[in-house]
């Protein structure tokens, strides 16, 4: 029995609330159960220095946790981000760039900020899922002002965690499961089913190829639901 009493293939309640930040070109408050992340998209009318003059844009991401997003206070990362934070930032950026036609942006940069308000496992997967909505709305804002002709997004992208908890493959781990799972994985998948990234780690015991396949099957089911929620959110 999972601590949350969910079935192995059941997600936590998920919601995507748009337009929650007044000044951002795009924003989304994403909730995976008790994990809440505020995602904003900010447009800068120039690309990073190393990309200037190449006729294309860039999407980058920053990720952080509020000090009391967790059970005990975490110190703010006021100087250099930790290795974990840098890894998550790069993952979010890679995921969004995988489904964006960067030349169609022109010489511009969009920065996605993912701020974890409350953490209960799966903060990076919630961030990617909500960041896509924020990016979509930023691009829609740009098109509405004739800054771009067509929407540069080529597909949806979302992410979900899976793991082996007490010997059973389960979908969308909360903290109680994530902290004791024998295998922990994050799956980033596009709307058309393409794999952007798979991160899977044996925490307590090695896992087999068969178990990895089961986790991927669970992830695909969760991603299908998340993509549908994204579609409903942007059509609302």
From TrEMBL:
Residues 11-138, 157-220 form the Exoribonuclease phosphorolytic domain. PROSITE patterns: RIBONUCLEASE_PH. CDD domains: RNase_PH_bact (cd11362). Phosphate binds at residues 84, 122-124. It is an enzyme of class 2 (transferase). It catalyses: tRNA(n+1) + phosphate = tRNA(n) + a ribonucleoside 5'-diphosphate. InterPro entries: ExoRNase_PH_dom1, ExoRNase_PH_dom2, ExoRNase_PH_dom2_sf, PNPase/RNase_PH_dom_sf, Ribosomal_Su5_D2-typ_SF, RNase_PH, RNase_PH_bac-type, RNase_PH_CS. Keywords: Nucleotidyltransferase, RNA-binding, rRNA processing, Transferase, tRNA processing, tRNA-binding. Its EC number is 2.7.7.56. Belongs to the RNase PH family. Homohexameric ring arranged as a trimer of dimers. Phosphorolytic 3'-5' exoribonuclease that plays an important role in tRNA 3'-end maturation. Removes nucleotide residues following the 3'-CCA terminus of tRNAs; can also add nucleotides to the ends of RNA molecules by using nucleoside diphosphates as substrates, but this may not be physiologically important. Probably plays a role in initiation of 16S rRNA degradation (leading to ribosome degradation) during starvation. This is Ribonuclease PH. It comes from Candidatus Rhodoblastus alkanivorans. The gene is rph.
């Amino acid at each position: 029995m999972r601590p949350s009493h969910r079935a192995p293939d059941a997600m936590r309640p998920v919601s995507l609330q748009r337009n929650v930040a007044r000044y951002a070109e795009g924003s989304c408050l994403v909730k995976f159960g008790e994990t809440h992340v505020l995602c904003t998209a900010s447009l800068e009318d120039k690309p990073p220095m190393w990309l200037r003059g190449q006729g294309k844009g860039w999407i980058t991401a920053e990720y952080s946790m509020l000090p009391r997003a967790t059970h005990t206070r975490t110190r703010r990362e006021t100087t250099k981000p930790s290795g974990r934070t840098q890894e998550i930032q790069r993952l979010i950026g890679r995921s969004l760039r995988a489904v964006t036609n960067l030349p169609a942006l022109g010489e511009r940069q969009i920065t996605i900020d993912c701020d974890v308000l409350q953490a209960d496992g799966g903060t990076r997967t919630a961030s990617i899922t909500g960041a896509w909505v924020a990016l979509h709305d930023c691009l829609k804002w740009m098109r509405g002002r004739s800054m771009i002709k067509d929407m540069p997004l080529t597909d949806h992208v979302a992410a979900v965690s899976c793991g082996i908890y007490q010997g059973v493959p389960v979908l969308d781990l909360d903290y109680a499961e994530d902290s004791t799972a024998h295998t922990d994985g994050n799956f980033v998948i596009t709307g058309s089913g393409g794999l952007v990234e798979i991160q899977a780690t044996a925490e307590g015991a090695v896992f087999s190829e068969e178990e990895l396949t089961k986790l991927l099957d669970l992830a695909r089911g969760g991603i299908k639901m998340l993509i549908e929620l994204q579609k409903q959110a942007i059509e609302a």
